Amino acid sequence: MSFIEPAPEKKPTFEPETDRDKIKSQIRDFIWETLKVIVVSLAIIIPVRYFLIQPFYVKGASMESNFYDHEYLIVDEISYRFNEPERGDVVVFKYPYDRSQYFIKRIIGLPGETVLIKDGKIIISDVNNVSGFVLREDLYLQNTYTQGNESIELNEDEYFIMGDNRSASLDSRMFGPIKKSDIVGRAWIRGWPIERMKVFNDPVY
């Protein structure tokens, strides 16, 4: 009589130390890859955020009807390192009497010019144009009357700025011209609200 004995059951081999090492290695690889992503991201984001562009929220009504309260703007901080500000640029700058505050206004007068406000008009003159010219702002303002009666001569590093809402703007008519060093950058993109998203170009006078 023949007997068949079942083959002995093979028990799975388990090497606890090897499996543990594998798990530790996977965790180390995951942490290392995550750190690399964070470092690379910061290396890109920080220079862009602090040296190239910066976000700002509009506060108040001084730039209506072109910019409204709570609109989200991206400000170009690099252009003025290579080029001079131009007339018509909308700029963000540090308030001369409290540099922790940021204002947004439009450049009206350039260095070396004389800005005359009279009878609701703005007249710009300089050594090459002594008789001056009336600044036409029809491209970005409608039926605007500029309050004031004054004449301001700008030095070689000074800019005369005003809000588009001339009757509700604290600007160079009150606190005088600003210097280029006060300017943070130029309004570049309106990112919010979506329906008013826009890339800004300099007006042509």
Structural description of this entry:
It contains 2 helices and 12 strands; from the N terminus they run H-E-E-E-E-E-E-E-E-E-H-E-E-E. With 205 residues, it is α+β, with helices and mostly antiparallel strands. It has one domain (55-199): Umud Fragment, subunit A. Strands 1, 2, 3, 4, 9, 10, 11 and 12 form an 8-stranded antiparallel sheet that branches. A 4-stranded antiparallel sheet has the order 7-6-5-8, with no helix packed on it. Strand 11 (183-192) and strand 12 (198-199) form a beta hairpin. The active site is at residues 62, 105. One of its GO terms (molecular function) is signal peptidase activity. It is found in: Membrane. This is Signal peptidase I. The chain crosses the membrane at residues 30-52.
What topology emerges from the helices and strands here?
Blueprint: H1 16-52, E1 53-57, E2 72-76, E3 90-94, E4 102-109, E5 114-118, E6 121-126, E7 129-134, E8 150-153, E9 158-162, H2 172-175, E10 178-179, E11 183-192, E12 198-199
Antiparallel strand pairs: 1-2, 2-11, 3-4, 3-11, 4-9, 5-6, 5-8, 6-7, 9-10, 11-12
Briefly, what is this?
It contains 2 helices and 12 strands, in the order αβββββββββαβββ.
Please identify the oligomeric state: single chain
- What is the arithmetic mean of pLDDT? 82
Radius of gyration of CA atoms, rounded to a whole number: 31 Å
- Give start-end ranges of low-pLDDT stretches: none
The sequence of SSEs as H and E is HEEEEEEEEEHEEE
Catalytic activity: Cleavage of hydrophobic, N-terminal signal or leader sequences from secreted and periplasmic proteins
Family: Belongs to the peptidase S26 family.
Organism: Candidatus Kuenenbacteria bacterium CG08_land_8_20_14_0_20_37_23
Keywords: Hydrolase, Membrane, Protease, Transmembrane, Transmembrane helix
